[in-house]
Amino acid sequence: MTLWSAQEAAVATGGRITADWQASGVSIDTRTLRPGDLFVALSAARDGHEFVVQALARGAAAAMVSRIPEGVQPDAPLLIVEDVQAGLEALGRAGRARARAQVVAVTGSVGKTSTKEMLRDVLAHQGRSHAAEASYNNHWGVPLTLARMPADAEFAVIEIGMNHPGEIAPLARMARPHVALITTVAAAHLEAFENIEGIAREKACIFEGLEPGGVAVINADLEVTPILRAAAERLAGRVISFGAAPGAHHRLMKVELHERATVGHARAWRTPLVYKVGVPGRHFALNALAVLAVVRVLELDRAVAMADLAGWSPPAGRGTREELVLDLANDGISIDLIDDAFNANPASMAAALEVLAAARPRDGVGRVSRGRRIAILGDMLELGVREQALHAELATLPEIAAIDEIHCVGSRMRALWEVLPEVRRGRWAETPEALAEQAHRLIDAGDVVLVKGSKGSRVSLVVEALRRAARSAEKGNG
């Protein structure tokens, strides 16, 4: 199916085409490019023009460029624009303008990608839906998602993120959502903001992109909720709230954490709701309630949505749980791994530790007779001048008392390690590589192991080491 013809793309971007072509997709990466994609030669860590020849050889329908790269054949299909980033943004705006989809935009300090994925799954069973495959939420991710949107999509979910002030509003205006959702506001990216109130004001800028009469969905439980509400009432046609606070339109009354699921008890106006999410975590129950609020705004089938949420699981690295078998010859010789190594700030760290504290290890199956709850924590990044204190304050969380060992990775996380009770203090390592080398010695059969940290902390290397240990055990028993 044709997503963009050469003529449509030229009109959208104001560019010049060198040949006729039809593109079935849009790509910025030759490693994931599919035959028929329009390759967009963005300049990031490397100049995308260096990969145009490779992209065309791999079957790209054409390439969007600002100059003709060396080695490109004279008759190669190109879309030549003045600036490639601006060209992608123009293509994204055109994709949004021609779409008839109801658009939902999602932002938040914690949970925006997981909530976007929940919405993707729920909406996909109620109409033709579109959302980014990954966490494409920045200055190139949002226009790329819009440029990839099929013209006949009925729903679209656009994730919008930020690192600095002034980033959300232009992306929201590009997305032009009918519904804008803020999952929560927490201490993240504090190095770019004076305080959490500044973060709230930036998040609230998502409402500046709302279509006329659009709906704002906000978290009712936050100290900064008044900031969100004031912006929503000024910019939205209607404001819907969710959370545990009295007066929330979708009010979470109780959460039950189970081994492999979470059950939420809520009220939507006068309607009682009991719903399940296929992964443990109070934060997932709250995000699912926000999704149900969006479902109501869009006038969709709530019962179908609740059935979809029951089977939902998060993307890799965002709280996924898996069994790693350590000995195929013996039943139960395994650990449960909670992989949450993609992102971290104080709020998401507390949520993950709550999940670990509620988990049930298995006794009597390993070298240590009692199964343990083990946390392996990497640095939380971009927290500003209070970063050391925010790391140390994790030791005051009530969930810490239920965790047997806490291993720490990185210079910032040393602040936590130094104030932990000695009985819970595991190992500290300056680098993830150093702890990854020891990973197989930190675990035992029956343990539940949480690995969490900011992506830049690279604590995911420990996750990989644990998986390698399990594969090595499989080979040894094979």
UniProtKB/TrEMBL annotation:
<dbReference type="GO" id="GO:0051301">
    <property type="term" value="P:cell division"/>
</dbReference>
<keyword id="KW-0133">Cell shape</keyword>
<feature type="binding site">
    <location>
        <begin position="108"/>
        <end position="114"/>
    </location>
    <ligand>
        <name>ATP</name>
    </ligand>
</feature>
<dbReference type="InterPro" id="IPR013221">
    <property type="entry name" value="Mur_ligase_cen"/>
</dbReference>
<dbReference type="InterPro" id="IPR004101">
    <property type="entry name" value="Mur_ligase_C"/>
</dbReference>
<dbReference type="InterPro" id="IPR051046">
    <property type="entry name" value="MurCDEF_CellWall_CoF430Synth"/>
</dbReference>
<dbReference type="InterPro" id="IPR036615">
    <property type="entry name" value="Mur_ligase_C_dom_sf"/>
</dbReference>
<keyword id="KW-0963">Cytoplasm</keyword>
<keyword id="KW-0961">Cell wall biogenesis/degradation</keyword>
<dbReference type="InterPro" id="IPR035911">
    <property type="entry name" value="MurE/MurF_N"/>
</dbReference>
<keyword id="KW-0131">Cell cycle</keyword>
<feature type="domain" description="Mur ligase C-terminal">
    <location>
        <begin position="335"/>
        <end position="454"/>
    </location>
</feature>
<dbReference type="Pfam" id="PF08245">
    <property type="entry name" value="Mur_ligase_M"/>
</dbReference>
<keyword id="KW-0436">Ligase</keyword>
<dbReference type="InterPro" id="IPR005863">
    <property type="entry name" value="UDP-N-AcMur_synth"/>
</dbReference>
<dbReference type="GO" id="GO:0071555">
    <property type="term" value="P:cell wall organization"/>
</dbReference>
<dbReference type="GO" id="GO:0005737">
    <property type="term" value="C:cytoplasm"/>
</dbReference>
<dbReference type="GO" id="GO:0005524">
    <property type="term" value="F:ATP binding"/>
</dbReference>
<protein>
    <recommendedName>
        <fullName>UDP-N-acetylmuramoyl-tripeptide--D-alanyl-D-alanine ligase</fullName>
        <ecNumber>6.3.2.10</ecNumber>
    </recommendedName>
</protein>
<dbReference type="GO" id="GO:0009252">
    <property type="term" value="P:peptidoglycan biosynthetic process"/>
</dbReference>
<comment type="similarity">
    <text>Belongs to the MurCDEF family. MurF subfamily.</text>
</comment>
<feature type="domain" description="Mur ligase central">
    <location>
        <begin position="106"/>
        <end position="295"/>
    </location>
</feature>
<dbReference type="GO" id="GO:0008360">
    <property type="term" value="P:regulation of cell shape"/>
</dbReference>
<dbReference type="GO" id="GO:0047480">
    <property type="term" value="F:UDP-N-acetylmuramoyl-tripeptide-D-alanyl-D-alanine ligase activity"/>
</dbReference>
<dbReference type="InterPro" id="IPR036565">
    <property type="entry name" value="Mur-like_cat_sf"/>
</dbReference>
<comment type="pathway">
    <text>Cell wall biogenesis; peptidoglycan biosynthesis.</text>
</comment>
<dbReference type="Pfam" id="PF02875">
    <property type="entry name" value="Mur_ligase_C"/>
</dbReference>
<keyword id="KW-0573">Peptidoglycan synthesis</keyword>
<keyword id="KW-0067">ATP-binding</keyword>
<keyword id="KW-0547">Nucleotide-binding</keyword>
<dbReference type="GO" id="GO:0008766">
    <property type="term" value="F:UDP-N-acetylmuramoylalanyl-D-glutamyl-2,6-diaminopimelate-D-alanyl-D-alanine ligase activity"/>
</dbReference>
<keyword id="KW-0132">Cell division</keyword>
<comment type="function">
    <text>Involved in cell wall formation. Catalyzes the final step in the synthesis of UDP-N-acetylmuramoyl-pentapeptide, the precursor of murein.</text>
</comment>
